[in-house]
Amino acid sequence: MSPFPEFHRPPPGGSVEVAAGVHWVRMPLPYALDHVNLWLLAEEGGWTLVDTGHGDAATRAAWESLEAGLLRGLPVRRILCTHHHPDHIGLAGWMQDRWGTELWATRTEWLEGRTFTAGDLREQEELSTRFYRAGGVPEEMLPLLAERVHAYPENVSRVPPSVRRIQDGEVIEAGGTRWRVQVGRGHSPEHACFRSEERALLVSGDQVLPHISPNVSVWPDEPDADPLADFLVSLDAFLDVPDDWLVLPSHGHPFRGVRRRALELREHHRERLDAAWAACREPATPHDLLARLFRGRLDPHQTTFAIGEAIAHLHRLEAQGRVKRQRQAGKPDRFLAVHV
To answer: How far apart are the first and last CA of the chain?
Structure first.
């Protein structure tokens, strides 16, 4: 894996052309992970955009500036959405209202976005509290984590009520190029990547990132899921990508060598599984694992991701027969290593 040195990363809200008609737009995020990469594809009379950025005032203002600059007053006609997280779909409704933009996404990602912006937040708070209590989170922290259910609708302008569904293996014409949809799972349920053989380009979204591991978590709405199994299988689809392809990720810098990076991510999770297994020599809750798997102090936002990822590793170990879950009414789940 190597960075692509021929251009510098754009400033927040800025852009740089990384291939003919393909522009890297870097938008700010209000988190420790402080940016998201978006990809603008030039079309006749407008633009196709891969992902939208966060649904907040700073990102809206950046798009308003870009409209007069890079966009040359031409509309974003279509969004190719990789997945439903707020930094990727957050401004889909705003763009539709502004330009009449069409949303193209996989069915599951669109439905996830609709669900999290239309659901009963009180019900979601109760579900969240039960989930994190079962994960061993201290009682005084539970209200802070339950409040996180408000973050999604607060940071997504509106998920459009209709979608142009895209599917794994489908070929889409965009920016004068044919892109094949490659669906990955684990980070989100039906994440779309986009491959162009003719231009040796791969939009990897959050499925493969150059320097950090995509978050792979269990969430309150599917508490018995095994997303890490899905994620590891999805990495196989990147192993045939030639080393010289330019990879366009949602965070970090464009790079080459996605096959090597996919193998690194597989090894990373093997090491994390071993660390989680070792932490269960005595019965341990998911919350007990945080000190073993994550460094530094975690705020409520980071804690939801950390707990979800700890549970994902425990569920994978349970499926492998390496740990057994101990359940007792009124107490958190505990996991005990099986020596195999």
So the answer is: 35
Helix, strand, or coil here: 20?
coil
Confidence of residue 8 (pLDDT cuts 50, 70, 90): confident
What are the contacts of 267-275 at 24+ separation with CB within 8 A?
268/213, 269/213, 269/216, 269/228, 269/231, 269/232, 269/313, 272/313, 273/313, 273/316, 273/317, 273/320, 273/322
Residue in the structure block whose two tokens are 């459009």: 160
Q: Hey, what amino acid is at 176? A: G
CATH, domain range 2-268? 3.60.15.10
Half-sphere exposure of 265 (CA within 13 A, CB side): 30
Q: Where are the domains of the chain?
A: 2-268
For residue 6, the model assigns a pLDDT of 59
pTM (whole model) above 0.70: yes
